[in-house]
Amino acid sequence: MSETVDFWEQHYGAKDRVWSGRVNARLAEIVEPLAPGRALDLGCGEGADAIWLARRGWQVVGVDVSPTALRRATEDAAAAGVGQRIRFEQHDLAETFPQGEFDLVSAQFFHSPLDVDRTAALRRAADAVAQGGLLLIVDHGSAPPWGWKDGHEHHLPSAQDVVDGLAPEPGRWERLRVEAVEREATGPEGQVATISDNVILLRRLG
What are the residue boundaries of the Methyltransferase domain, all occurrences included (predicted)? Predict the structure, then answer.
């Protein structure tokens, strides 16, 4: 078992459920008015976003490194009646990446306390966007007080830092949103704090 798999298996194995089961707010806000197509959900965790998309008619590939998270996601998708619209795949995105092109590629809070090449994975995500499709990256712009407490300081890139790292080819991408947006967040013990999200929304042109 790789270090990445081991870390995330311990993370998901520590609780019966890690996430709320609710769709990420920025994803819902941006995708709600869109016509459904093919979607790729990177770091899908326990599958809430993938299930939300499938309920709205999207065909979804959900990717995570943790077998435990993917098992829970598969069970929840079946219980929601959308299992046939979602294919869950295990990938360590530093090593392998799902095949195909997608009308929507979503990376919601694709952070890790491990030393991984996040920029390389996001560039591969951009390469997977079909002509006319969208790349949506939502990052932590500020850390909540209940975030990772592993003794290390983790750099949180700005929205512009993320775009700079992607190095989108001029004339091939349209910047729809590159900004920081504040929201109220609730922690695992019910704590409440105002934090910011970086929202990066790019459209692949012809």
Answer: 40-133
The sheet that has 102-108: what strands, in order across it?
A: 86-90, 59-64, 38-42, 102-108, 129-140, 192-204, 173-186
CA 126, CA 30: separation in Å to the nearest integer?
17
CATH number of the domain enclosing 12:
3.40.50.150
Residue given tokens 């009308």 in the structure block: 103
User: For 134, which DSSP code?
Assistant: E
- Where in the sequence is the domain holding 68, given as residue range(s)? 3-204
Question: How many domains does the chain fold into?
Answer: 1
Torsion of CA 74, 16, 29, 191, to 10 degrees: 180
